Sequence to fold (308 residues):
Amino acid sequence: MKILITGGAGFIGSHIGDFLVENGHEVVALDNLSSGKKENINPKAKLIEADVIDFQKIEGIFAEEKPEIIYHLAAQMDVRKSVEDPLFDSKTNILGSLNLLNLSVKYQIKKFIFSSTGGATYGDTDNRPTPETQMEWPLSPYGVAKLSVDKFLNYFHQIHGLNYVSLRYGNVYGPRQNPHGEAGVIAIFLNKMFKGEQPVINGEGVQTRDYVFVSDVAKANLLALHNFEKTGIFNVGTGVETNVNQLFQEINQHFENKFPEIHGEGKKGEQKTSCLNFDKIKQEFGWEPEINFKKGIKSTYQWFLERK
Fold:
């Protein structure tokens, strides 16, 4: 099938592209290259440089390329930036997504697979690992936007018959993650440590996240396509909570523990906890995480080491 991946030059999108090419699909990567990189894209995939908020250009791409499947990953992905500028976040993450949804109906897309978020959507909850049935109370405009798109997906499914899957990720990490900016603490710490710079842990470092390796996330996306008639929202996580202090210690082992554990001020409004229940996707897609945290950190360290 012919598949369009928005954000296809990015960290997660490029891994999904690799899996799709390996499975014999024709892949078109659409990316504005604000954070994605051309070198991430599979040599057998086609790159089109465009922004999802440019409606006319995106419609022209739909008309010319005639994709059958949409993987939508293009997003403003920085939670803290969304807090600073909710309008910009909403323009990209809500209006950009609506552009694609309207065009998906017009051009009769067979399935729309959306990269959503778990922790930022559910917010802090005592019900952990958190299932899809949990009431969502996002603590950031980023989480609000992702939840909004999930609701729009249900609307387009009920009213227009658009087949969709929304995958709510934990904190995805691994090779190709961008170490610049505020998102992706593992990539940020590794990048700093390879430069000999001291990483700083925000606050007490007890805030927890569910870290899921990027290849496991890419496999979940492939299964969302293979289970073609399935629709709805699915968590993609490990069910394991790791705090930032534990994360730092695991990475520091690869540097012979030469970096002291240094804490700075906490970030205002930062979510305290996040951990996802993956029972639903395991039962319906047969997916479960294969890469544990220790192995995933080692693989990510090796990737950064090779690019020193």
Summary: The chain has a mean pLDDT of 95. The first helix runs from residue 11 to 22.
